[in-house]
Amino acid sequence: MSNKAVILLSGGLDSTTLMAIAAEEGYDLYPITFSYGQRHENEISCAKKIASVFNAKEHMIFDIDLAKIGGSSLTSSEPVPKGRGAEEISASIPSTYVPARNTIFLSIALARAETIASRAIFIGVNSIDWSGYPDCRPEYIRAFQSMADLATKTGVEDKEKIKIFAPLINMTKGEIIKKGISLGVDYSLTHSCYDPVKGEGNKSAGKPCGICDSCLLRKKGFAEAGVRDPLSL
Question: What CA–CA distance (Å, rounded) separates 46 from 231?
């Protein structure tokens, strides 16, 4: 049985907790971080630090320019939604949705897993405290699992197939943070903001905006967990 796990590592709170879970379960970590044309590089630099802290066997930075496809405020200059309430955040699919992003990422992770004889892919999708992205739902993960079983040599010929794990999918942000803290996760290493402060020479440059959907969900999670967010200190 292979003990290699391919981890989708964005540098954010969820995927860092995912790294800790996979490590606790005894996997050798092979994270992939995607440079996909997003509006900032903060999460990539965080992902590099996180991969190092967890002693990843190999950290792949995969370049793919989804900005060429467009359709998202995360890959363009279109303003990201800010200052929205929890109900508004989950009421409809926001402009921060990146078309087919998780399908693209998981497909690349699937190819990577098959190439290195891994039988586990970890993805940090969540369908409780979320922005309503369709590719974060349990039914989507089940559908991708079926596709993976059908579309790979491993799925067709081997008894042990590549399994898609989404251990955070039914957890609140507070529960995710509590889990991470119990595993020793240092959340000061993470980055969650969709639109960090800009400005060359600005002392606050790179810091979270505090009011985009991702920042607000993070704030809610730390409040529920009863601990301070180290990024707010």
Answer: 13
Tokens of 89: 């955040």
Q: What is the mean pLDDT of residues 14-37?
A: 98
Q: CB–CB of 64/36 below 8 Å?
A: yes
Distance CA 119, CA 4 (A): 7
pLDDT reported for residue 199: 58
Helices (H), 64-137: 86-91, 101-115
CA–CA–CA angle 193, 53, 3 (5° rounding): 105
Beta carbons within 10 angstroms of residue 136's beta carbon = 21
Strands across the sheet with 60-63, in order? 60-63, 28-35, 4-8, 120-122, 163-165
Mean pLDDT of 57-84: 95
Domains in the chain, number = 1
What would the mean pLDDT of 191-208 be, rounded to a whole number? 79
Range of the domain at 91: 4-232
What mean pLDDT is predicted for residues 128-145?
A: 93
Provide the pLDDT for residue 11.
96
Long-range contacts of 102-105 (CB under 8 A, 24+ apart): 102/133, 102/135, 102/136, 102/140, 103/135, 103/144, 104/64, 104/66, 105/8, 105/32, 105/34
Q: Is the pLDDT of residue 112 over 90?
A: yes
CATH of the domain at 118: 3.40.50.620
